[in-house]
Prior knowledge:
Layout: E1 2-8, E2 12-18, E3 24-28, E4 34-40, E5 43-44, H1 50-54, E6 66-67, E7 78-81, E8 84-87, E9 100-105, E10 110-117, H2 120-123, E11 130-138, E12 142-151, E13 157-159, E14 162-163, E15 166-168, E16 176-178, E17 183-186, E18 191-194, E19 205-211, E20 217-222, E21 227-233, E22 239-245, E23 250-256, H3 262-265, E24 270-272, E25 277-288
Antiparallel strand pairs: 1-2, 2-3, 3-4, 4-5, 6-14, 7-8, 9-10, 10-11, 11-12, 12-25, 13-24, 15-23, 16-20, 17-18, 17-19, 19-22, 20-21, 21-25, 22-23
Amino acid sequence: MxxxxxxxxxxxxxxxxxxxxxxxxxVVPERGGIVTRxxxxxxxxxxxxxxxxxxxxxxxxxxxxxxxPICGNLPDNQxxxxxxxxxxxQHGFARDLPWDVVEQMTQDRGSLVLRxxxxxxxxxxxxxxxxxxxxxxxHNGTLxxxxxxxxxxxxxxxxxxxxxxxxxxxxxxxxQFDIPASSFLDQRTKTVHPFDGxxxxxxxxxxxxxxxxxxxxxxxxxxxxxxxxxxEYSNAFSTLVFxxxxxxxxxxxxxxxxxxxxxxxxxxxIYLDPGASxxxxxxxxxxxx
Length: 289
């Protein structure tokens, strides 16, 4: 049995819950359609900076922000399309705009369907007509996210998309990673390094990209919290980004369809034909050890 409730703190929040397992999921449509909390067996899997979340002038640091129509940043926040210069800030605008709730389901599953469409505001930064439909579904130990991207423009629409999940952690030094890549690009130094499954958490910041992943899943074992986290994602997600800051109780493992600056370089950029749609999935599962 599933239920959906509403609460206001400080934004209108949809709470999906399983009355049988106690799993719950919180989604805030007006704050970028973000998942803010996900609980399994009474445990918070995600990190959320409550102070930043409450301030609408700041980007959210926590939960699962949505990235569209770019992942990462652009040089000087600019890109050129058809000879015209546009400004687009880091990770795009989908994570900042209000989304509409178009469907709620509690019969056979607990699902919430959100929608974002282009408008005059988005066209100033991104000259395309689009529609995004995201479906969040709560299972026992799984959070399933289905995305549909539709191009309503008369021309091909270039974009990249992704997610920026923040996972809460108590001891990063114990984390065990299985990431399907043998090397990564340090996004600060622009240098490539071999990857043996370990990160140097003594660094002030780690910001690396695994480009061209060889498998559509990655796992993180957290012995200090006794659970295994599994990320599964569609083939379109060709890049995994790992980011964390020393002294902060979170790490991010982010599926992107293209590396940063793809709108300028074209690297792994998706081009959606006029009237066409593309569907992808991103699932998170937790198994307690």
